[in-house]
Write a structure and sequence with these properties.
Elements lengths: L60 E5 L5 E3 L9 E3 L2 E2 L23 H5 E5 L2 H9 L9 E3 L10 H4 L1 H11 L4 E5 L8 H9 L3 E6 L5 H7 L6 H13 L4 E8 L8 H11 L3 E6 L6 H12 L4 H10 L19 H16 L7 H4 L17 H9 L6
Parallel strand pairs: 1-5, 3-6, 6-7, 7-8, 8-9, 9-10
Antiparallel strand pairs: 2-3, 4-5
Length: 387
């Protein structure tokens, strides 16, 4: 397989020659090779797999790690936050469209099945956060929690890193915004509710489709659509402002239900709505095409043709300002549909609480935990700002 060149639009990834086999409970169809791997892998039948044998099961494996840094900063003009925190690398939800999949390539792992089965937990995330915000040079601004990979993915039930991070933020009265596909966020209402009363917390639930059958293949280990709607209602009743992110909008797959999704979220209590059209950066492109061929072979070509209509003839265009919503006739039609649905639901201008989280209450931590020897060495070495 030829390597990627420096052009992010280069389409040089070859699909495996074998037939696509859907893995139950997984989004990716294959373990596509990452762009930085030096060795070439090719799938072939060596005669050892007998007919009727159980296929290989991709079990979830979690590696506990000591992170070097915990806050990621960006200056992207089309992203509504400047600071984010991700307790985990990789995500068991397995959403085939996840823009974070290519980050596993930096680890020498596949953005395919590896991304959703070989996970990394930043065990010192709460301590690192407390150390960071205690610095005299730290300037407070809302932290977006769980943007790259879901902070409430299944392993959070046991590891509780997200909850411990929230406890630090609550103690210091630091504003936070969360986005998730998981109903597990309800567990932390006892923290988020009091914070929301002080305008320190807001949440957003991603709702891609209302069809549970599509959701099971598109985002196999995330909460079912009906369960996410119930989570919106539960958070709303607890006084926490909740928005809905209709993302991604996939032509001919989730796109027909744009209006129904926004209406259902509004009925559940959401006060605002936003959207993103399908993005296919790096290895997400071939992985998504494999998924299309496996689950929607009858419309795969139509979907990609429409995607290219919104991307200037390409599979993806990473240009700031257009990468989130696309451009052209079809992108403009989607924008109009979203805006009209929001207006019909009376949600216009109701998202101010998301933009007005209070930064004036912040108090630096009184007691800062001492970093362990391993954490000190990691911090001194520095970390690339990738995650």
């Amino acid at each position: 397989m030829p390597p990627y060149d420096d052009d992010p639009q280069a389409e040089q990834v070859m699909l495996p020659p074998s037939s696509l086999k859907v893995q139950k409970g997984r989004g990716a169809v294959t373990n596509l090779q990452g762009r930085y791997e030096a060795d070439v892998r090719e799938t072939f039948d060596d005669g050892w797999e007998r007919e009727g044998e159980e296929p290989k099961v991709w079990r979830t494996h979690v590696t506990e790690e000591t992170a070097r840094s915990i806050l990621s900063r960006n200056q992207s003009p089309d992203i509504p936050f400047g600071v984010s925190l991700n307790p985990y690398r990789g995500c068991e939800h397995g959403c085939i469209y996840c823009f974070a999949r290519p980050t596993h390539s930096y680890l020498g792992l596949s953005p395919g099945l590896d991304f959703e089965s070989k996970l990394f937990a930043k065990m010192n995330a709460p301590e690192l956060l407390k150390s960071e915000i205690a610095k005299a040079s730290y300037t407070v601004e809302p932290i977006a929690l769980g943007v790259n990979t879901d902070a409430y993915q299944p392993i959070e039930r046991d590891l509780r890193l997200t909850r411990r991070v929230l406890e630090v933020l609550q103690e210091c009265e630091h504003p936070v915004g969360l986005i998730t596909k998981s109903a597990l966020i309800e567990r932390d209402i006892d923290i988020l509710g009091p914070m929301a009363e002080k305008r320190l917390a807001a949440a957003s639930i991603t709702l891609t489709t209302l069809d549970p059958k599509i959701a099971r293949t598109l985002e196999p280990r995330a909460a079912a659509p009906a369960r996410r709607l119930r989570a919106i209602r539960t958070l709303t009743d607890a006084g926490i402002p909740v928005g809905v992110s209709v993302a991604p909008i996939i032509p001919f797959v989730t796109e027909p239900d744009i209006e129904k999704i926004i209406e259902a979220a509004h009925d559940a209590g959401a006060v605002m709505a936003s959207y993103v059209v399908l993005r296919l950066p790096w290895e997400v492109n071939p992985l998504f095409k494999e998924w299309l061929e496996a689950h929607f072979p009858d419309r795969a070509q139509r979907v990609m043709n429409r995607v290219r209509d919104m991307r200037g003839g390409k599979d993806y265009d990473a240009t700031f300002g257009t990468r989130m919503h696309g451009e052209g006739v079809w992108a403009d039609l989607i924008r109009q549909r979203v805006e009209k649905a929001i207006k019909r639901c009376g949600m216009e201008g109701r998202g101010r609480r998301f933009k007005q989280l209070d930064c004036t209450r912040f108090q630096r931590p009184v007691v800062v935990p001492a970093l362990g020897a391993r954490a000190k060495r990691a911090a001194a070495a520095g970390q690339m700002d990738l995650f």
